[in-house]
Amino acid sequence: MKIEITNGDILIDAELLGKMLAIESATVPALMQARAITSICEKGLDVHRGQYRLSFFYQSRRARLNVDRSGHILQRSIVNFGQKPLPRAPYSPNSK
Q1: Which domains does the chain have, with CATH numbers?
Q2: Could you give the CA distance from residue 39 to residue 80 in angstroms, rounded to a whole number?
Q3: For site-directed labelling of 22, which of 38, 62, 81, 96 has its Cα 20 to 30 A away?
Q4: 3-class DSSP string for the chain
């Protein structure tokens, strides 16, 4: 299982996310609970209907997955912003 979509709930495999964010997969759940890893889910419209864009942020990295409604990965990307900080909104739990 990599990505599972059931009744609007999306579950992603910690191993996949850990690899994309360059962290140990075992630490993913705790980092998410502590809001050190933040995320945003965007639902596709028009030609992208039935697709989702899942973005995950940790320190200076952004991992993005475009998936279809069955959880099949259509596209993936990883950006390491290096020393440049990530934008605060909407990716930070502290943004207002």
Answers
A1: 3-80 (3.30.505)
A2: 16
A3: 96
A4: CCEEEECCEEEECHHHHHHHHCCCHHHHHHHHHCCCEEEEEEECCHHHCCEEEEEEEECCEEEEEEEECCCCEEEEEEEECCCCCCCCCCCCCCCC
Residue-level pLDDT at 83: 80
- CB-based contacts of 78, cutoff 8 Å, min separation 6: 20, 61, 62, 63, 64
pLDDT of residue 2: 85
Q: 40-63, pLDDT tens digit by residue?
A: 999 999 999 999 999 999 998 999
Two structure tokens written together for 67: 């998936």
Tens of pLDDT along 63-77? 999 999 999 999 999
Mean pLDDT of the 19-48 span: 95
Cβ(16)–Cβ(8) under 8 Å? Answer: no
